[in-house]
């Protein structure tokens, strides 16, 4: 089995499984690495966090077994070494590289059709139902607070927020400092 995410602009992600039911990912046609390494680099540091997000199944267990990283930092360094061989890796440079490859709107864009198809395929709305928002969501264009930290995503809230997600608006997070909201 294989799948490729081809963005309008930015790094390609190629997913494939092998005969041992291990899921691998290639970032921009580099050497393959277990897909869980990418998940760890994105902030899901422990095996249990990954299982909680994706559910327990044979593919995931086999991939976690193959994964030799056990923290976000180690995963970031592993990806950096694959994408920039020969350069001395640091956690900060690895974070910066991952951000620029996938989270910088100027360098990465799925486009509306790609984002719509991805959300449909992954059943984003169903996965978000009854989840609690970990950080306050703010529309970066208007500064309007869309949902407060701790809000439970019921159908009404989801129906209101999904259009923002489908438009690909990246949310800023705000933190309260001395009674004043401040951008992180």
From TrEMBL:
<protein>
    <recommendedName>
        <fullName>RNA polymerase Rpb2 domain-containing protein</fullName>
    </recommendedName>
</protein>
<dbReference type="Pfam" id="PF04561">
    <property type="entry name" value="RNA_pol_Rpb2_2"/>
</dbReference>
<dbReference type="InterPro" id="IPR007642">
    <property type="entry name" value="RNA_pol_Rpb2_2"/>
</dbReference>
<dbReference type="InterPro" id="IPR037034">
    <property type="entry name" value="RNA_pol_Rpb2_2_sf"/>
</dbReference>
<dbReference type="GO" id="GO:0003677">
    <property type="term" value="F:DNA binding"/>
</dbReference>
<dbReference type="GO" id="GO:0006351">
    <property type="term" value="P:DNA-templated transcription"/>
</dbReference>
<feature type="domain" description="RNA polymerase Rpb2">
    <location>
        <begin position="5"/>
        <end position="132"/>
    </location>
</feature>
<dbReference type="GO" id="GO:0003899">
    <property type="term" value="F:DNA-directed RNA polymerase activity"/>
</dbReference>
